[in-house]
């Protein structure tokens, strides 16, 4: 399957400025520190639930930086903390959601944490049932194509959405919803990108009990879309693959299925205990090859990041997270009357 | 005013909405060249082209989900489900997604989508081409559920549905597609969602119905008026969700007796809610048991003709129930 | 008799059924090594092995459909849906397929399948981990719908469900999984499907409830008895479909006043059917409006704590409604 | 894709006795004549609905003869008249269903015609919503495997079902139900065969608007099952492919997706008019290469079928169809009370 093995001819990541490379690092770091804080808050009994993106940051930040951030449509899944933060969701937004406090932007604190959504950022509101977002994202991509073809949108207007991106886990590709969404993307040659963040487990269920293929990307063939597998813990490799997919989408050449091999560094969520189904060595090994560490080393090796700069970033991150936590802890709960708002538009 | 069939009125509504607003498009199975298996979209493909009248893959959940996504991205989709019986694969997208999008996004993302589906029995369709499915969706806040019974309302309500900022399920009594005729104003007008129609005046008993049963109820009411001097107040509900409590209670206040007619299975059919409203908020007016005339609680409408007839409510059965209740 | 939690009783039922009959198997997401996200199947994988406790792919419609096929081919599947909120993708398989198989095959192919799903709110689960979904399925002839509220019943009803030759939806009030405790006989016994439980004697008013609300109703009833001398007759419905009309009417005959409590959205929730039955067949006993205390008609249970509390019925709200109705 | 193009090494059809070859011919013919009569009855206004299998008989009869007929589980779709007749459904059974008369075996005349089902023949009762049967059939295959592995069934007991076979149209593979059923078949290496009868249209919708692949069989890759495309109007070629799939299933080697290229010679159903979407030449061309004619010529060429024998078959078929029609026309309708039977077992 040539699509899966072809050598990357161009490496768009080589054209990224040092400033951008550092900005990517910053977003990985900020997301990680925010995520870690959530675990602390959970251990302290201050929040009831957290679902973590740790181990998936390279894919997510790489994805965000490859699209027109805040303009292209993004339909994420619960593990996409780093993705949405790279699109503009702040630690404060997230903390308000963890605490279920007034001012929470995605849902007025109606949804559980990590159920992203922000019209301002062109992030579609998302639910818990997995894979439902895939055909919806295809619908957004369909709308873009429709608007172009019916003269409602200039195809080169970079101020308007030019693609729809969605993410889900490998387990969620078992859902019929995924099949049907991918099929529309193929049939209508939609400006659509589907990232499958393959971390080998759906809660406890390993990929072998989920599907009988070795690479999720092989499933692209069934839809006539481009399929590619990439190391999702190598941010620049992932960025390169994304750029190719984005170019395809912008140029009207159709959809891409990107399988990003990731590993979640934590249990599925704060409700989970992964010891019965994941060997400890596997988890430890993944921690040793952590995407952030690797990217750090890469940037240091190229002289882009220094220890001092790193300390600076760390401090800024801590400040932001501290401030966000304080703000959320002190924020009031939503008014009871808000229960009855927004049933009908 | 021209006389029109129900289906012609529906087509005219779509035609005018397509002409009015380039954001309106139609998708569903066989809606293009074939003009729909009931011919509801006939001629629209030729008029508006393949970029606006789009044959979908054979996959209902995606028809709805594409509609959700497209609606959120600024379009006004009309999604056709070929038969209401085939809406069930899309249940998750309708109930968990479309209905909850506005609420879950804190009132930011809304879904201005219309889902059309022919429903109902009496057409020899057997278990899977005869179903009434409205009861499921009338339990779901965030959805609107509309069922027209006259060509006039069909056109006006469908236009309202297309323009409504919420997901609207628009169920069409397919048995009446060609048999129900009526006057339809030319050009643009709307009938508001959420308001029942007073189909007939009477003070002996209130009859609540919708779709084909609203027709039958009026027929039966005329018959019992003629033959027995019983005057029925017939309410054609038209919009099932949000429930038009006001109209429901206003009629009951006058009559104190209620007969609710629906062709869906009796238990937990829409009539249950009407009965609950009347026995809750209309208790002081109650003069008789609340009567429901629904289809029996058997899995669905059978194909074999005599079984189908035994299953379906009809004017005769309705008239009998009216007489019975009037005599209470 | 040993005291047990609700979830332990459920697990014991499955354990004993697995031991009793090699045709019984369990499938669902994370039911194997993980023992289920609520630990309902904990230890069963170790005891019965991967050939009988089978982690399914993450795909609910196939969990149900595999169950249907396997049941028709002679097995006795217990299918777990991880949260009731995720049953909607399987709606088509349940409603169009499982429910209608026996009828559509002229009484030849039957589907002895049990579908278990934790349901209900009050656990901080937000819109998609708190839903009550029973209303949809109680409208579907061919299905049975069971909701236990005590460990004793949970074990006995689940065994009946597994042995029943029909598709049984078995909804478990997850808020009570660990908080509800009670005596559970060791070893084999069954509780028959289709029969409500008389949870408390009283003659002032009838209270109909199920699941967590049955518990709360009893708590509230004790409180108003103590504080106001109001004696409630509490019916724990247990089986919602087929409807146990007999028990429902028997209590009403005694009291003439009815309060129906459910944590699902009010409109078209299961309480609508009870109200319809009472106002239809129990009219002559009616002494007061039929009262429904349900959740408000907002899309689902919000996550934020005070909103969740505002949404959910609880013993306090129930007691208030009891007093209100008793004073009518 | 080697699976799709590999040369057939063995041709099991070469081992078929003349008697069997003629029996296959007989079933194609009987189904065709029954089917044609249904159209006549419809034109005469005697029946309200017919959905035809004409053009699909080679695939269907080939499939039936390749399995253990009446023993292996079959979960057909509405177009499978020839398949179910080859499994033992008689013209009389079918006529009773067309007329909705008492004694109808699949559903007590509750279902529309062509909604097959017979427990006696191990044909699972089927509904109208397309593709729902696929995961159910996988469930039956799962039960076979389960029963073997848990000692409830001897794997070599030919008196017991050893596989589950299901059929559907190419359009119906767009459904999530198909995806999920195929996925189980792959993950659990089930004794399962899925025949996609690809007649290029789903009612009016051509395959290009249904999927972005050139062969439905390519979709097998997504499920890790064997995929093969074959001319579904060549009964012996189809039989050969089926035998390989049956051997795989019986030997516990897993599932096969067979794409049979067919063409329906009639509109979708008696409610349809195909003139707006199918060019007349296309239909005429398909009639010229009709599977029954081709098989007839093949058998005549090999001296197995003669004109006299053919006349004989034709006469027998006519008699059976006449008798069936008469019987059904004269049969009573079901008792009204039967409406209320069989709600619960
Ligand atoms: C329809 C549905 N079924 C079940 C669940 C419960 N659930 C939440 S996440 C999850 C596993 C998802 O695994 P995967 O798709 O691999 O994503 P990951 O969490 O590994 O990133 C499950 C079973 C759900 N959210 N939605
Ligand atoms: C879920 C569902 N949606 C729609 C239909 C209506 N319908 C019946 S057959 C059909 C086309 C099927 O096409 P295909 O799968 O290619 O099979 P073919 O009829 O061509 O053999 C459609 C849309 C249905 N039966 N079920
Ligand atoms: Mg995963
Ligand atoms: Mg086809």
What is the spatial order of strands in the main beta sheet of chain B?
Answer: 3-2-4-5-7-6-12
Give the name of the CATH superfamily of chain A: Thiamin diphosphate (ThDP)-binding fold, Pyr/PP domains
Structural class label of chain B: alpha/beta
Bound ligands, named by name, code or SMILES = thiamine diphosphate, magnesium ion
Instruction: Give the averaged pLDDT of chain A, no decimals.
Output: 96
State the separation between the terminal residues of chain B, measured CA to CA.
42 Å
Number of helices of chain B: 12
Q: How would you sum up the global shape of chain B?
A: globular
Q: Uncertain regions of chain A: pLDDT < 50 for 5+ in a row?
A: 1-7
Question: How many strands appear in the DSSP assignment of chain A?
Answer: 7
Task: Examine the coordinates and then state which fold CATH places here, giving the name of the CATH topology of the largest domain in chain B.
Answer: Rossmann fold
Order of helices and strands of chain A: HHHEHHHEHEEEEHEHHH
Percent of residues in helices of chain A: 40-55%
Please state the second-level CATH architecture of the largest domain in chain B.
Answer: 3-Layer(aba) Sandwich
CATH topology of chain A: Rossmann fold
Largest interface: chains, residues each: B-C, 49 and 49 residues
- Report the end-to-end length of chain A measured between terminal Cα atoms: 48 Å
Task: Let me know the largest β-sheet of chain B.
Answer: 7 strands, mixed
Whole-number radius of gyration of chain B? 19 Å
